[in-house]
Structure formats: structure tokens, C-alpha cells
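Hello,

Following up on my earlier ticket. Below are the two sequence lines again, exactly as submitted.
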Amino acid sequence: MPYDALSEVTDDALLVLYANGDAEAARALTLRLTPRVLRLASRMLGDAAEAEDVAQEAMLRLWRIAADWRQRKAQVATWLYRVASNLCTDRLRQRRPVDLDAVPEVEDGRASAVEGMIEADRARALQAALDLLPERQRQAVILRHLEGLSNPEIAAVMDIGVEAVESLTARGKRALAAALAGRREDLGYGDG
Amino acid sequence: MAMAETDDDFSDAFRGLDAAFAAARAMAPAPSERLLSRVEADALRVAAARVAAEREAVRPKPAQPARAGFWRGLSEAIGGRRALAGLITATLAGVWLGFSPPTPLAGLTQMVSQSVLGSAAAVEGLDLIPTFDSVLNQG
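Thanks for your patience. The regenerated structure is below:
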């Protein structure tokens, strides 16, 4: 099937097409899903190289189960987020505990000079704060506020209830706010 | 008061969290062409391996393994390779003795035939497959 014609096709249908030997479906799924899983892995791990490895491994597992996908009830994206999250968790547990002194600080002075740099510093500070969160809180906050998933979707990814998701995101946001509290001037919040 | 200042800091940061989320979304990492190529290559490789496995699964079995299975089954029924080798050896020995009996065995054969048939000449003249005429003559 031509690639342009696949833009409206669902992930599930694309996966069935791929399992039937459609190379264009493989390309469409690659372009559609790899960015999502890479974003999640980057924010969970805070390491670009590791995130690429996780993204490739998660997609490889998707290719391998494609032929049996009809028997599954989960959404493709939900399943993929779950696989990527588990891969990230495995890697995080192999690391040493985070050293609070090693978290990069926002650069003083230059941050407020250029708006683009403020944006970059805000994103960098947020990532540094995310790195300090417990894994489950971090995962819930990333999926809710950076990937834009609904609470029921996050519940499916994390295999927990919606109320537990709400609790995790609330605690995660509170911890992030506390971590960013001392940086309002650096991050351009001083006026508001 | 110090406490009020801390609360203000916290409130500002909490209100600014949405801005930080927006900044992070705007600066989201994008996959490189190299990563996309690797992922797509994995997809094609897995698909090719699956097709090859399916072809192998539906390919008809050659006849030779079935024959091998028969002989293997016969060998196991007899008692294994050693028993089969012993059986073959005994068979060949019997055939060899039939064509070329050793001298002591020839004497024994003569003695047995004399005791049974009553005449040494009867061994050579013994007709094991008599013709139909001889049967009629004997009534």
C-alpha cells in the first residue's frame, strides 16, 4: 500500500499489514511510533544514547510480536509505552543512586538574556528535576504532562488504577515544583 | 517572613511548572535518521526471517527420512545396532557354510544321511524336489 495512503490507518491495522509483509506499513509504524518511544525513554533516562537503544529494542519487540498481534487486546501505543517503560526501569535499577550534587544547575546570568535560552534552561531544569523523582512518579508525570496521555491510558500502561495514576502525578508535580522553587529567577518566573 | 517567602517561591515554581512542561514538549528529542534506519531495517529483517520460517514449515518432507525411519524402527525392534550386526553376521556365516562346508562337517553330513537313508549313495541321489512323474509312479 502506498505510504501516503497509510496516514489515516490505525496502528493496529498497520501492524497487521506489516505482519502480512507490507514494507510500507513497517516504514509508517517506524515514523509514527519511534519518536514517541524515544521521547519517553529520553525523559525517563536523561541519556540520549541509552534512549536510542531502548527505542530500538522496544520497536524490535513490536516487530517480533506482530504476527500474533490479533490475539492481543491492548492498543499498540499502550503496549509499546509499557515495554519501553520496563526497559527504562531495568536500566535505571542498574545505575547507582542519583547524586543530588551531580544534577546540573541552570546557568546563572545568561539564562534570562535570550528567550530561547530561557526555554532551553526550563527544559533542562525540568529534566534535572525529573531525574530526582521516583521511577513511578517520573513515568506518570512524563506520560501525563509531556506525552499527553489520559489518566486511563496511563493506567493501562502502568497496569494500575486511575486513582493511583492521579496520586502519582499529583505527588510528582509537587516534587517537581519543590525542586524548581529555588530557580524562579533563573527560569524566568520572577515576574509572575 | 522567611516562611512566607518560601511559600511564594513554591507557588511561583508550581505555577511555572506548566511553562516548564511546555518548554520540554517544544524541545522534545527527535529520532535521528540513523535510528529510524536501524528500526526499519530491524522490521524488514524480522519479516524476512518470519517468511523463511513459514516456508520451511510448509515444505514437504523428503522420502529419504521416512525410509531411514523404517530401518531405524527395525533396528530398534531387534534390539539395537549390536543385535542387528550379530544377526547379519550369523546370516552370512550360514550362507558361507552352505556353499563351502568344512571337511569335518562333510563327514558328519554323510554319517547323518546314512543313518537316515541307509545308503551313502543316496545322499547324492536324493531328489528333494521330485518330478510329477515320479510321484505318479509311486502311486
